[in-house]
C-alpha cells in the first residue's frame, strides 16, 4: 500500500524558454507529423538499418496493423513484431502534451485511438497485432525475439500516463486486462510460462501500473520477471518447441544470451553487457522494483550496473552502446567515436534509470547523468524542426566515410525522416513532453531540486517553488520558495559536478557558505518566502578522458554548463579534424540569436596547417606550417541541422 | 608467339640472409605443417571469421575432399567451395621450394598429389571437389559465388610452377584439360556461358598458362573474361536459373555487384571498389593480358586502378581493404587503423599486380610498392615460427578491444594456427618461396634490378650479377656484374623512394653522379667485370599521412629503409597509445641479434603522462604532467610473436 508523501509534487509548469521551445515543437510539429507517419499519410522516405534484416517497407503501417487486428480492415501485418509500440509511445507523448497544452482535437484523436486499441485487444487481454494477424498460434511461444511483453508494456506505460492526465478509464482498463493476461500466463505455476521477454520493458511498466493501481500482483510479476531472467535455458527451450527456423525477426536467434541480459541471473552480472537499450530499461525496472519492494540485493545490482555504465562505458554526451553490432555495450573504456551507436532510446532509458536511482538514493551523480542526457544525448536525437531523427548519435562523423565504409554507414550525418525500426522518434517525444517529471525528486522530508529547468511547482505540503533562469545559456538560478505551511521544509539543490569548484549561493540576498553533501546542498525553507540565488560556473571547460580510452588520448572536449560542444564543418573552412585547438588562448562564448533558433556558440583560437600541395598519400614528416585559425563550436545537440558535413566532439590540441 | 628475350633471367640464387631465413622456414616448417593440416593430422584449432557464415568445421578436409572426388573415399565435402585451392597454393609453394631446396621426399609427396588430382579430375577436365561431391548438376551454374574458375585457376598456376620446376607433364596436362574445359564452356558462342567467375583469378592463371604453352586460345579466354565482366546481369540470370535460395556460400548473394568488380565493365570503373583481393587479382590478370595483347585501354585501366589504390587506399604497410565487411575497399583516404582488414592475400595480390605493371612500364613506384609489400604487409602474415598466420593485418590493435568489440573482433592480436577460410597461409608461403621471381625485370635491352634481396643471377645474354648486402638492416648494396659477352648491357637499379634524397653510387670504386629516371638509374655494364656500390639512406624517417586521412592527422609513422616500425606493448611499460614521441630527440637504431630471431629495433625518446589517480571517466583538463620515457619500436612484420598486447604504427607526437 502506497501512501502519498505529504510533500509530493502536486503541479508543475515548465517556464524554461529552452525546454518550452522543444515542448511547443512536440505539440505543433512532432505529434502531428508522427501521427501522419503512423497513418501512412506522410510523404516520407524511411531509412533502414544498413545490413539489417528488416523488410524494407515504405510506410509505417503502425495504425493499420491495429485496424487489421481490430477487424476493421483486412490485410497482412507490416513491420516489426513490436510495430504497435510506435503508436503507444506516441500516445504517451500526446498524453503528456495535454498537461501543458490541452487540445480538444488531439484529445479526440487519442480517445478514438484508445477505442481502436480496445477493439484490437482480445478478450483475454492479449494485444500484439503481429501475432494476432500473422501467428495467432504462436503467442508467447518465442519470447527471445517476440517483443510481446515489451509491446504490451509500452501500452501499459502509455495508459498510465493517459489515465493520469485524462481520467480515461477505458485506457486504463485495457492496460489492466493486459497485465491480468500476463498474470495468468506467466509465473512459477504448473500451467504458466516460467520466462520473460527478450527485451526488458514490462518490468518498469508493471511497476508503474502498480504505483497507480496499488495492485501488488503487478509488482510481484515484475519482480518475477527480473528474478527469472538468465536462470536457465528458457529461451532455447521455447525456440526448440516453436521450431528452430521459424524466426520472427531474422538474424536475432544467434545473438548471444548476453545480448538479452540473460546469460546469467542479473544479480550475478558484474558488468553491463549486450543491447544497451535493453540494459537500461531493465535497470530502470530493477531500480523501481527495488524501491517498491525494498529488495536490497536488487539495489546493489542496480548500483553495479550504474557504476559500470557511467564510469566505464558512457560517452561524454551521455551516449551508450559502443557498437552498432547488436546495438551493444562493448568492453570497459572502449569508446570509439566513429563506429559507435549511442542510440537515442538508450539515452532515454538512461534517464529513466537515473530518475529511479535518484528516488532510491540522494546522490548528485544520478542527477548529473540525467542532466547530461537531457541536454546532449537525447535532444541530439531530434532535429530543430521536429521532423527528423537520429537513431545513432556519433561523436565523430563524416558523410563521405559513412557513405563508403560499411563499418561506419550506420552513422548518419543527416537526421532521417523515419526509420524501419522507428523506436527513437516517439521515445524522444515522450521524454521531452514529460521533462517536467525529471526536475524534482521528493524524499520523506526533503524536496530535491536536481535539474535547472525553470518551472513553477506546487507541492502537497503547501510549498511552491518558482525556479527562474536562462539555463543552459546562463548560470544564474533564482528560486522563490513560498512555504505556506507552518513547518519548515528541507530543500536540496544539486550543484552539478561541472560547477562544484565554483558555485555561489545567496539566500534572501546574503551570500552563504554551504556544504556539499553528495552533490547537494540542503537549505531550510522556513514558513514564508525564501529567495535563493545560485550562481553556477558557466566558464567554458575543457574535458579529457581517462587515459585508458585509446580513442581520446591527448584530445579534449569542450563543455559549458551541461552542454557538450562540437565542431561542425558548416562553421569552419575545412574539415574539422584539420584544426588543433590552441593551448592557451581563451575560449569565447557568445549567444547567437539568429543561429539555429538561437544558441550559445564558442569561438576558439586554433591552428591549422597551411594548405600545401600533398602529392602523395604518405610523405616524409616535416613539421607542419601551422597558421592561426578561428574555429566555432556549437552545442552537440544542434549539429546536423544544416548542410551535411563532418563533425567531431573530441579535438586535438596544438602540437609542437 | 613469345620469343625469349636474349637477356632473360636464366638462374637465380637468393643469398640474402633475411630472406633465406624465411625460405628455410618454408621448407622446414611451413610446408610440412600445412601438409599435415590439410591432411587433418595436425592437432590445431581453427579460427573462424567472427560473424561469418562458414560452418565451423574442426579440420581442413582439403585433401580428403579431393580423395572423395577421386573416388578413393566416401563422404561429404567439407569446407568452402574453393577448399581445393589450399592444396594448390601449397603445391605451388612446394614447387618453388624445390628450386632452392631439392627434396626427394617432398617431391614424392607432390608427385603423388598430382596423381590424386588427376584421379579427381573429370574426363572433360572439370575439377572442383565441392561441386563434384555435393552438386554435380550445378557446375558453372552459379559463378557469382561458386569460385569454380578461381579454384581451377589456382591449380593452373600451381601446375605451371610445378611443371617448370620438375617437368612433370601430368601436372601440366591436368591444367591444360582444365583450360580446355573452360574453352568449351565459356565464350560468346550460342552454347557457351557468356560469363566469368565472381572471384577473379582465372585471368592471370590462363595468361600464365599461355606464357608457358603459347596456346593463344588461353590468352583469348582470359581477355574474354575481362571484357565480359560487368557487361550485363549475367550473375543475376544465373542465380535466377539456379534457384534464388540455393546459395553455395551463405550471405554472399546480397553483396553488391561492386563487391565482385562487376557493377560495370572494368574499363569504365574509375576507382577500385569491393573485395580487395578480387580487385588486385583482377588487376594482375588485366596487366598481364594488356602486356601480352598490347591492349592499350586495358593498360590505361590498370594504371587507373593502380593510382587509386596506391595514392588513396593503401596503408603505409602496404595493407589494402579498409573494412572487414566484404573484405573491401572503402572511400578515398578512408584508412582506419583499427577496424581495417589489410588481408595478407591482398598484399600478395598487390605484389602480382606490381610485378606485372613493372613488366609493362619502367616506373620505380611499382617496385617501391612491391618492396613495401614484401617487407611489411606480406611477411606480417606469418609468424616467425612459420606455423601461425594473420588473415587481417591491422595498424592498431588491442586484445581487450578485439575481445569485446564486434566491430573490431576480426582483428586478431595473435596469429592463428589455421582459418576456416584458409586462403592466406598458403598464399604467403608461395610468395616467399618464389621471392626470387620479384627481384629483376627484364626489358628489351635492360636488366632492371628493382629489389634489394641479395642474390646471384645469370642471364641468357651471358651476364651474371651478384648482389650482396645485409639489407634491410644495412643499406650498402654491392653489385658485381660479370658481362661475359662482347656487348655492353644496360643495368637499371632502382633507388627507392625513401632513399631518393640521399643515395650514393660508386662504380669500380669511383663515386658517380647519376640521374634518376622515374626511380631508376641506368648504368652500362661493359664486357668484363663492373663493381657497383650503392649506399642507400638508412636513416630513420618519420612519415605522415595526407591531411585527408582523418585517422592519422597529427601522427607519424616510423620507417627505416623499407621497414615500417610499430610500437608493441611487449616492449613498453604501458599501453602503446600512452606514449607521445618526443619531437626533436634523435631516434636510435640497433640490431638486436637475440630478439625475435635477430632484428633491427629503434629506440626513441617519448613522453608519457605521470601515473595519476583517475577517478572518473571524464575530468576537467589539466595539462598532463609528462615524464620522459624510452620507447622501443620493432619492425611491423615482427609484431605478435610474443605475449599478446596492444600495438600501433601511427604514433602521437609530443604536445605542448
TrEMBL record, chains A, B:
Residues 447-538 form the Non-reducing end beta-L-arabinofuranosidase-like GH127 middle domain. Pfam families: Beta-AFase-like_GH127_cat, Glyco_hydro127C, Glyco_hydro127M. Residues 12-436 form the Non-reducing end beta-L-arabinofuranosidase-like GH127 catalytic domain. It comes from the Bacteria. Residues 541-651 form the Non-reducing end beta-L-arabinofuranosidase-like GH127 C-terminal domain. Coiled coil: none annotated. This is Glycoside hydrolase family 127 protein. It comes from Candidatus Enterococcus ferrettii.
